[in-house]
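Hey,
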Amino acid sequence: MGHRFTTSLRRALIALALALVLLAVAAGSAAAKTTTYAATIKDGRAAAQALLTQSGAASLSLSLVAGDRVVWQEAFGYADKATSTPPGPDTMYGIGSVSKILATVATMKLVDQGEVELDAPFTRYVPGFTMLSPAYRQITVRMLLDHSSGFPGSTYGDLSTHTYFPGYLQEVLDTLAGERLKTTPGYMSVYCNDGFTMIEALVLAVTGKTYAQYVQDEIFTPLGMDHSAFPLAPFPDGSYAKVYQGDALRPREVINLLASGGAYSTPTDLSHFATMLMNGGAYGDTRIISAASVAEMGTDQTLLSFTPVPCKSTAFGLGWDTVTDPGLDAVGVTGWVKAGDSIDYHATFAVAPRARLAFVATTVTPLRSSSLGALGQRVLLHALVDQNTLRRLPKPLPQTAPPVKRASPARLAAMEGYWGTQKDLVLRVAVSANDPQALDFFRLTGSEWAPMMSGLRLRTDGRFHAGGSASGYSTQSAGGRRYLVQSSIGANGHYRDEALMMQKLAPETPLSAAWTSRIGRTWLAVNEQPDSALYVWDRFMLLAVGDIPGLPGYVSVTTAPYGLQLVIPVGDMLGAMFLQIPGIGSRDLEDAVVEQHGSDEWVRYGSTLYRPRATVPALGAGANTVTVGDEGYAEWRSLATAGTLTIAAGGATTWRLYGPDLAAVGAGTTFPATVSAPEAGCYLLLFGPAGASTTVTVAPAAGAQAGHAADASGHAATPKSRTPWPRPLEIPALR
């Protein structure tokens, strides 16, 4: 079903949700007001401490809300390791995509005021918005909030920096103007950051205020969220939890997509926000949004679009990851949940509106929102028992596979073949050479198919399981496509959920000579901000092109933000995204667009432009003049030998030095600078305004010999002490 056919169903769902919200608000909860939740707090404290110990994360902060009161607020670890300072109730953390709930409430406030209509075209409010696909005119405000706009996904270029980049919103608008839609608007809901970034443009167009100012005026200040902010300027030292890589302090993270993932807050402040939602949009005597708007947010939007296998974990509301949390739904309780992940920070925000309970947790890398979500689910289940909503905790499901049954040739054939999804996973499934009733899974690793699982056999539940695993796999045909469906037991062991995991890949037309020539080559990013995460982390600025062994017609594009993704060439200059998997299986896709720059082929992937690594100019011994081109792109240079570089005070504003394998060696913003290139084959990267020139003088080390030069494919020799591409640390998909 598409959105346009479901008005009556939508109204019925919203009416039901509104009735439940009003019932919960009217009834309140005597238990929530009088229960001490002592057992919940004891268990939750032990679980939180165990998480921190097991993960090695520096700190964690949380709160549990019952009714209108915070019944438990506690922080663990160190907000500052150097001073052994623990986090307090006012210590801010980045909350990642929990920011989307703020953006949704901001939008619903405009809806309540009659300034915005949810089902009106976005272009009514932002008429300058455009895309290559004419259907962009069908995108409504609702579709921005329920992930059904059809946008490719996330504009990762300049998403993460260490100083606020005010041009990010315009960069996203400009990027979308040159992109295609991946689905018809409203057809399916696929997790999408750019939809929420467009809320920034909406708020500015309708109110004349910047998004950050509007949220401050209409949400933070009225709710007394005095320790919530956007990172538009440096925060005072001690006001936020610091993040470490090992024992090394990381600079403060700035996520420039403010509405989608940029806010900092505290569990204490977010407790006020949760109370407002549980009270039908009011906090004390202050009304933020209407009860009808809260109900609209809590209505499952995926019921109205292409959802062949409903997944409770991605039953998107407006802003919410799910309005049917499977762990709470298994015990008959409604749960609204939003997770948040950036590179440095992670959060979970869970509300059980009818039970009048909420849980908030924030932490730092390497803990992730999935771990916090499991903790939150556990805490809420215990709280439900404490308030006598549940008699006892739910029993875990058996962690074993059902009995084996015989698989027909048709069932085996449906599973066999190649499967793709949005990031880092391409599978080949084949009948086992040792057992005609068993399947083996192989994962694409580099240019090889590495064994992943073996001996999967059909079971009485209709799924293929490996050994005694409770996780099973089956297939489903829908929308002219075949999907691999994964069924697994959830985090706390008492429920099962299933989701469309992958899309089957059919052989395509063999690659053209142009695309074949690109296989195995690499490119380097040139148009990011100097402090973009792509330049800070080892090898993150790299784009690599490959193919799929045994499957003609596909090209793999590997970058740090997007991971390994597949495209299908359409002509010699476009590799087209093609996956259509609702939920998260086809999130953050991009076209690979080849652009001719002189005699070189450059590649644009999303908003990031990459130049060929193989043709990076070399710096010779003595003085070299490096001039930034007319377009202002960063300038890459290679060094044939180890030695000392002297970068004069000229037009350059930032320099970065990388080893032969593109591991970060050093960076600076002051000139003149003297830099040691420790080995042959290093790379220098210079930033500056268009037309600016800088002199770089190279003094080769005594007895230095050339080596580690990039070969014709763009690959440099990699010392054995380095981790080959892709390195284990990668930018997580923001959510």
